From TrEMBL:
Source organism of the structure: Aspergillus nanangensis
Pfam entry (one): Hydrolase
Keywords: Amino-acid biosynthesis, Hydrolase, Magnesium, Metal-binding, Serine biosynthesis
Cellular component, GO, one term: cytoplasm
Name of this protein: phosphoserine phosphatase
C-alpha cells in the first residue's frame, strides 16, 4: 500500500502572533477592554505554515502599554482575550475590600532594589510570626520550628499603595481558587484616591463552588494570606447583597476598640495593683481564662477605691482615631449604635454621650453607701456582660428595632467578642489579639476606625459628605 504523499498533508493549526505577546504580564492585563480577535477557526485551518510565519511581526504587541495609574475602569476584567463572559443576572457575587497597610510596613527597611540609600550588606530583621497568624507572636513560645522567612515585600518595589500589579496578582489568585475551574467576571472601584489608592473594592462572580471551597474557608485561604503578606495589604471578603451596603445596627466593644485603654487597668493604677490586674486582663482577652471568673477576680482587687474614680478616668480615656467620624457617619445614615462592654457602666454611659451612641451596656460595680468606695464586688441584680451576654444583647437590640441580623455589624478585639462577631451580619476584629484574629470572620489592623465604612461600599467622598458640618 502506497504511503500518503506528505506534500498534500494538511498543515497543523498554529497560534497566530496577533493572539500573543512577548510578555506574560501583558497577556494577562486586567484594566482595559479585550482586544477584538479577527481570526476565525476557518482562517487558521486554511492557512499554511509558510504564509503564517511570513505574516508574523515578532516585535508587535497587540496590547497597548498599561496606564501609569490605577483608575476606575468601568469595565469588566478578565484574563481571557474575549468579550464579556455572560452570566445570569442572579449570579451571586463576592466583594473583596483590599486595604494597604500604610501605617504598618512589614519591615522598616526599604528594599535595596528600590533605593540607592541602602547600606551595603544591610540585613533585614529576623523572621517573626505575623500578628493574627498564631495564638502568640513570640517565636520562643511556639512548640515547633521557627517560621519560614517572610515573602518578598513587593509593595516596596511597586509602590506603597494598592498598585495595578497588586490587583492583577489578586485577580489571578481568585481565578485559580475555584474547583472545578470556572471563568469569572470581575470589576473594581478605588474607594479613596485614584492615583495611589489605599483602599480598593473588587467585585467578582461567580463565587467558588461551595462543594469544593466554602465561603468561610475562602476567607482564610492560604493563597490569600500569602498575597496579604507579599503586598502588605489586608483583604476582607463579603457576600454582595443590599444588606452589605445598608446596615442599620452597629455594636462596639469599648476597651481597646472605641478607647485605647482598658478601663479596669486604669482603675488599678490608683491603688498600685496595675500589674496583677493587667496580667489577668491580657489572659482573659486572649481566651486563656473564663471571662466572668477573671472579671470577679480583678474587681476584688479594686476594693476600697473611691467611687469618684470614674470621674477622674474620663480625662484619662483616649477615644481612638476615627471613632467620632465613624459614629457620626453611621448616625447620618440612620443606624442605631450600641456599646457592649466588659468594662463598667459609668464609663460606657459617658462614652455613649461623647459619640452619640444609643445604647450602653456594661458591668455594674457595687459601691458602699457609707464609705462611698468600691466593695470589690459586682451588683448581683445586673448580668455580667460576658461573651454570651454580648451576643444576646446584639440580637435583642436588633429585634427591638425590627432590624434583620444581616443588617448588623459588630466590632471588637477580645475573645469575649467572638460570639457577637460571628452572630452579626458583619463581624470585624479591630486590632485584635492574635488568637481572636484567627477565629474572627474578618479582621482589620488599620490606624483609623472609620476604615470600617469602606466595608459598606462607601467611598472617601461619601464619608466626607456624611461627616460634613454643612449637613442640614
Amino acid at each position: 500500500m502506497a504511503s500518503p504523499n506528505p506534500a498534500t498533508r494538511p498543515q497543523r493549526p498554529i497560534l497566530q502572533q496577533s493572539l500573543r505577546s512577548n510578555s506574560f504580564i501583558q497577556d494577562h492585563q486586567q484594566y482595559k477592554p479585550s482586544i477584538p480577535v479577527s481570526q476565525t477557526i476557518g482562517n487558521v485551518l486554511g492557512s499554511s505554515f509558510d504564509s503564517s510565519f511570513s505574516s508574523m511581526n515578532l516585535n508587535s504587541n497587540p496590547i497597548s502599554p498599561d496606564p501609569d495609574k490605577v483608575t476606575d475602569s468601568g469595565i469588566i476584567h478578565s484574563i481571557f482575550h474575549h468579550h464579556t463572559n455572560p452570566l445570569a443576572p442572579e449570579t451571586p457575587q463576592l466583594v473583596a475590600t483590599i486595604y494597604y497597610k500604610s501605617g504598618d510596613p512589614i519591615h522598616p527597611h526599604l528594599h535595596p532594589d528600590s533605593t540607592a540609600n541602602a547600606w551595603p550588606g544591610e540585613k533585614l530583621p529576623s523572621p517573626m510570626v505575623p500578628p493574627g497568624s498564631a495564638p502568640t507572636v513570640d517565636i520562643e513560645k511556639i512548640p515547633r520550628e521557627p517560621p519560614a522567612p517572610e515573602p518578598e515585600p513587593l509593595d516596596h518595589l511597586y509602590g506603597p499603595f494598592v498598585s495595578q500589579l497588586c490587583l492583577t496578582n489578586f485577580l489571578q489568585i481568585i481565578e485559580s481558587l475555584p474547583t472545578p475551574y470556572q471563568r469569572m467576571n470581575t470589576s473594581h472601584r478605588c474607594l479613596d484616591k485614584h492615583d495611589s489608592p489605599r483602599v480598593v473594592e473588587v467585585t467578582f462572580s461567580p463565587p467558588p463552588n461551595p462543594e469544593y471551597l466554602t465561603f468561610s474557608d475562602l476567607r482564610k485561604h492560604e493563597s490569600i494570606w500569602r498575597f496579604e503578606r507579599e503586598w502588605n495589604v489586608e483583604v476582607v471578603l463579603q457576600k454582595e447583597s443590599v444588606f452589605r451596603r445598608h446596615k442599620r445596627l452597629v455594636v462596639f466593644d469599648m476597651d481597646s476598640t472605641l478607647v485605647d485603654n482598658e478601663s479596669i487597668d486604669e482603675i488599678a493604677k490608683f491603688i498600685g495593683v496595675e500589674k496583677q490586674v493587667s496580667e489577668i486582663t491580657e489572659r482573659a482577652m486572649n481566651g486563656e481564662l473564663d471571662f466572668s471568673a477573671s472579671l470577679k477576680e480583678r474587681v476584688s482587687l479594686l476594693k476600697g477605691v473611691p467611687a469618684d474614680v470614674f470621674d477622674k478616668l474620663k480625662s484619662v480615656l483616649k477615644i481612638v482615631p476615627g471613632a467620632r467620624e465613624l459614629c457620626k457617619a453611621l448616625k447620618q445614615m440612620g443606624c442605631k449604635l450600641a456599646v457592649l462592654s466588659g468594662g463598667f457602666q459609668p464609663l460606657a454611659e459617658w462614652l455613649a454621650g461623647e459619640l452619640g451612641i444609643d445604647y450602653a451596656h456594661a458591668n455594674h460595680l457595687e459601691i458602699d453607701p457609707e464609705t462611698q468606695t468600691l466593695t470589690g464586688r459586682l451588683v448581683p441584680t445586673y448580668p455580667i456582660i460576658d461573651a454570651n451576654q454580648k451576643r444576646s444583647l446584639l440580637r435583642s437590640i436588633a429585634a427591638e428595632n425590627g432590624i434583620p441580623i444581616a443588617q448588623t455589624v459588630a466590632v471588637g478585639d477580645g475573645a469575649n467578642d467572638l460570639p457577637m462577631l460571628h452572630a452579626a451580619g458583619l463581624g470585624v476584629a479591630w486590632r485584635a489579639k492574635s488568637m481572636v484574629q484567627l477565629e474572627a470572620p474578618t479582621r482589620l489592623n488599620g490606624e483609623n476606625l472609620s476604615d470600617i465604612l469602606f466595608l459598606l461600599g462607601l467611598s472617601h467622598e461619601d464619608v466626607k459628605e456624611l461627616i460634613s458640618d454643612d449637613l442640614v
